[in-house]
């Protein structure tokens, strides 16, 4: 009888020792740097738990995140009802070599005899696994899948004069963290004006792990309208499903104003009225020159011509600038302003060099921020300059 009682006590103690346990469950694999390692922390308890706290340890060797809320449930193990605790995590190794995870301590407060509380710690031993180097040069990027969404606000090779192109690229990767996605590509060309919006990095939890996205946005405008090509951007990444390197690409795009091939939509061709006025001024200049020659004033011919042109009521450059101010065609307005100021310098009129400062401020900022009358107001100030 005594032997049976001792055996029963032994079995109860042995069963309790087996059940009150905590362990790290890690798949048998050889991940590469940056690859998500699914980790499950599992505890099995037989005693009544009043309180519990558990903090997963940080490390310089990995990044980690919790994938879901802790789960508590009852299971039948060895013929006994056991309280099971599970926490699902994802670990991302930062470097190659042997990776150590843990140990992890679960701090419990148990309900003892006479409802007394007693502290009780259960420790999950550390686990180790080998991590392979990232199989390519450059910044490691490992994911289950990776997609690129490239959205353009207009046809990039056929922009209207003065139009800005808004390019938005969304990079989405499953099985990685937002800060492990690559940095924003640099779109820089000698003929390009580029404004960038702040990037956005986000993550969404799924049962299979995090899905991270980064959004880049550029406001692009040609400097001269001359057509060019924005080159492609390649993003190498390791596919954790096929265990192979792959390359995602932000496609190359043609870029420029549609009007460039048609002499910039004819913005450099004078209308009939301006051409007639110009011919009249030209004829007046020729006539004044002949008068000066006949009068024997050849040494003062240039001064006489400047005086006649200054007093002439016909100024095609001024008329053209006023007409374009109503169209909102900023590049054409800027070129017409240069012609107007060049004529003033030729006539000896005052030019400070700061007349186009306000116009340049409007021209070289995103077009969405331009008020309808801003360009016209800037031109009116330029023409009223004396």
From TrEMBL:
Keywords: Membrane, Signal, Transmembrane, Transmembrane helix
InterPro entries: BatD (IPR025738)
Superkingdom of origin organism: Bacteria
Annotated transmembrane regions: 275-297
Signal peptide (from-to): 1-19
PANTHER family documented for this protein: PROTEIN BATD, PROTEIN BATD-RELATED
Record protein name field: BatD family protein
Species per Swiss-Prot/TrEMBL record: Ancylobacter oerskovii
The organism's taxonomic lineage, starting at the top: Bacteria, Pseudomonadati, Pseudomonadota, Alphaproteobacteria, Hyphomicrobiales
